[in-house]
Amino acid sequence: FLYQAAALTIVLRTIMRIRKVAFQRLIHASYELLQAEGTADILSRISRDSHLLSRGFNALLGRTVRDVLMLTVFLSLAFISHWKLTLTFLFVAPLILTCLRIFGRKIRKASRRAMRAYGWMLSALQESTKAMAVVKVHNAEGYERRRFNTINRQVLKQEMKARIIRAISSPVIDLIAIVGICIVCLVMGWMVYGPVGVEPPALLKVGMMLAAAGAAMRPLAT
Length: 222
Description:
mainly alpha; about 90% helix; elongated
């Protein structure tokens, strides 16, 4: 409870400071810059993007720190108990890190495009609502509707790309982890029934530690 309360306090205060700095930059920016950027995009950054940041910070402080500590402790205990078997388990770590880098880069690009399209949608919505009288006088409802629908479909397109990348990253990392666990189980069986002749209780202890480490690694990977 204390950890979660402290983490949420840090997140809320950090987002408050980010909104404060963003508004200061906005209010002191030149008029030419505001015209070029568009007020809708700026409003989207202060409201929507800050909310997305709070979710990311909350996940980082609320779960990632805990999982990193658990992963470090259990891997250290397993390495002390049986370093050869632990190294066998860790051979999948470079593959998982490589996948995380690839998927992370693609998700960031897709998210940036989605947020940019969302800003365009807010800009179109703001222009239509502010100039509603002009739209009515010129009977431009159909034009404004088509323009908004086009931008709205573009937002959906970019968000769908990011969704596909996020959805495919989890099963790929799960598959790599399962292959690593299967290899560890085969090695443990060979150590028990093969010429090595290791006692099962010793390997069971290491296996439980590696299973706990894998459980902590799973949220970090996704």
